[in-house]
Design brief:
Blueprint lengths: L1 H9 L13 H4 L1 H17 L7 E5 L5 H12 L6 E4 L3 H10 L4 E3 L10 E6 L8 E4 L2 E2 L2 E4 L2 E4 L5 E4 L1 H17 L1 E10 L9 E4 L2 E3 L9 E3 L2 E2 H10 L3 E2 L3 E2 H8 L1 H11 L4 H12 L4 H4 E7 L11
Parallel strand pairs: 1-2, 1-4, 2-3, 4-10, 10-14
Antiparallel strand pairs: 5-6, 5-9, 7-8, 10-17, 11-12, 11-13, 15-17, 16-17
Helix pairs in contact: 3-4, 6-7, 9-10
The chain binds S-adenosyl-L-homocysteine.
The site of S-adenosyl-L-homocysteine has 20 residues, from helix 1 and helix 2.
């Protein structure tokens, strides 16, 4: 999974109608603007520390960072921009949209200062392990292709995701700040096979076309929350994306944009529906915040 995704992201921009999948920031500016407002609010309530920086894990085309920073800058935030991104293709796209970002291959090299961090659809792309009973399920070469070596009730773990969450927790505890993690997944750990492949906006067989399709699995928010908490961060309850965006005021923001741009009324209403609708992204997608114990909890989780 790790090797496939590394190759996949290194060789293309997979986002948008002409690609394989569409993410929330690519649907509408509303998503990033509300995150920007939530981060601006928590930064101001923490006393507007001038050495804080904005960070994003897996920033895609940079659209989310662009929308977030527009709002953060308006609130007086003048901090640096740090992007954790391994794909050279996507780094090029980010460079075109954002002014003066600094790139990192991993979370470890982020500055030792307070951070305002966002990870949207990042954890789901990190590799998982699957287990059947006490045995790890493996991928083997068979009949000229790839196959699983066993079937049964599957339990998934992700040491890599847990490690990243722990590193975020450690940094927040030591240096201050908040991290918002948004992804599709479940609030409580549960057995089940959630590995999936998407190509051209359609599900594909997970072992077909190695490196040519997006491989993800549901994020276990209970597991990453525990890792961050064990490392010293405070962890909010897990919210659904729909609840969270409603509490952050997506309705009011959409109404304001519609009043200023009546010709965009239909597009904005459709975006709100896609981002918050129960049958769309509103319920499957979850949000959690990790924050320094001496920083306030960000809005949207009450
Ligand atoms: N957050 C963006 C893009 C999500 S796609 C959005 O919401 O539109 C996943 C992103 O994570 C891509 O930018 C991809 O290149 C990056 N990525 C995937 N695996 C990574 C890894 N191991 N290290 C750093 N970045 C990674």
């Amino acid at each position: 999974m790790e090797a496939c995704n590394q190759y996949y992201y290194a060789t293309r921009d997979p986002l948008g109608a002409g690609g394989d999948f569409t993410t929330a920031p690519e649907i509408s500016q509303l998503f990033g603007e509300l995150i920007g407002a939530a981060l601006a609010d928590v930064w101001v309530r923490a006393g507007s520390p001038p050495d804080a920086f904005y960070a994003e894990l897996g920033p895609g085309r940079g659209t989310l960072a662009d929308d977030v920073l527009r709002v953060l800058r308006r609130a007086g935030f003048a901090g640096e921009v740090h992007l954790v991104e391994t794909s050279p293709v996507l780094r090029t796209a980010q460079k075109e949209l954002l002014s003066d970002p600094q790139w990192h291959d991993a979370v470890d090299s982020l500055p030792n200062r307070p951070m305002l961090l966002v990870a949207n659809e990042f954890f789901d792309a990190l590799p998982i392990r699957q287990h059947v009973g006490a045995m790890e399920r493996r991928v083997i070469a068979a009949g000229g292709g790839l196959a699983f070596d066993r079937d049964g009730e599957i339990v998934e773990t992700s040491p890599v995701r847990d490690q990243v969450a722990a590193e975020l927790g450690r940094r927040l505890h030591t240096h201050g700040g908040v991290a918002l993690v948004i992804d599709y997944g479940h609030a409580k750990s549960a057995p089940g096979d959630t590995l999936q492949a998407v190509r051209g906006h359609r599900f594909a067989h997970v072992l077909a076309n190695a490196g040519e399709q997006d491989l993800t699995s549901h994020v276990d928010f209970e597991a990453i929350g525990r890792s961050a908490a064990d490392a010293g961060a405070s962890v909010t309850p897990v919210a659904t994306q729909g609840e969270w965006l409603n509490l952050l005021g997506i309705g009011a923001r959409a109404a304001a944009l519609t009043a200023a741009n009546p010709d965009r009324a239909e597009e904005l209403a459709a975006a709100v529906q896609r981002l918050t609708g129960k049958a769309e992204m509103g319920e499957l997608f979850k949000v959690v915040a990790f924050h320094a114990p001496d920083w306030p909890q960000p809005a949207g989780f009450e």
